[in-house]
Amino acid sequence: MSERTAPPSAPHGASDPAPHAAPHAAPPLLRLADVQTHIGPYHILHGVTLDVPRGGVTMLLGRNGAGKTTTLRTVMGLWRASAGRIEFDGRDITALDTPAIAQAGIGYVPENMGVFSDLTVAENLRLAARQGPADPRRLDWVLRMFPALKVFWHQRAGVLSGGQKQMLSVARAIVEPRRLLIVDEPTKGLAPAIIQNMIAVFRELKQTEVSMLLVEQNFQMARAVGDTVAVMDDGRVVHAGSMARLAADEGLQQRLLGLSLAAHQ
């Protein structure tokens, strides 16, 4: 990918220390403490405790059905926590509704991409700009990351390929500055070339002041962009630490995930 400039209008906070800069590291941007979630009669989250540091990328990994998507949806208020506490920048957001959580500065890209198929690419991005027309400089930066969207600017989103829809979904989430970006499986079902493009995009996003929490099944992506990692099993976080350490320890990978990252390049 060609070199790009940083986005304009980014929020303050670039000087925050890295998440592993203890003992004086800043408190996490997002914190879940013993969060439990029921969906109807089903008890899905059994006390999730998770910290998302400021200024980095936290990967949320685990087998299918471990509770990863439920965790993201609970943070966003789409499903209500039945117990526990969720804090964003020290503020309790556990009981807030989804619009208020988004207004606090959290962007969310769901697994189903969340684009409006009957609207054009341009209309999708305009609708995502909550504060009015998108800053032209920031929109130009977004389109430089996703040049295909400029090509299909006046086309309905429904005619885009799966990879292009995923690009549009991420673009919608970042068309305005966000303090935290939550993305559910950004590379799911994408061709290898598109995955490489997504890796480049998220690496560029890492150079901005947005923190990220990503659910991801593609371990090449997880290792390429992750700083910290939390592994879930049966509705709980069973491991948290450095992504680099997990990527280097095949025994730990086998124990936590039942597979080796080296076998999934």
Automatic annotation (TrEMBL):
Protein's UniProt name: ABC transporter ATP-binding protein
GO terms (BP aspect): L-amino acid transport
Domain of life: Bacteria
SUPFAM superfamilies per UniProt: P-loop containing nucleoside triphosphate hydrolases
GO molecular function: ATP binding; ATP hydrolysis activity; branched-chain amino acid transmembrane transporter activity
Listed InterPro entries: AAA+_ATPase, ABC_transporter-like_ATP-bd, ABC_transporter-like_CS, BCAA_Transport_ATP-bd_LivF, P-loop_NTPase
Keywords: Amino-acid transport, ATP-binding, Cell inner membrane, Cell membrane, Membrane, Nucleotide-binding, Transport
Family note: Belongs to the ABC transporter superfamily.
PROSITE patterns tied to this protein: ABC_TRANSPORTER_1 (PS00211), ABC_TRANSPORTER_2 (PS50893)
Family annotation (Pfam families): ABC_tran
The UniProt record lists the keyword Oxidoreductase: no
Chain spans, region Disordered: 1-25
ABC transporter domain ranges (all copies): 30-259
Listed Low complexity bias regions: 11-25
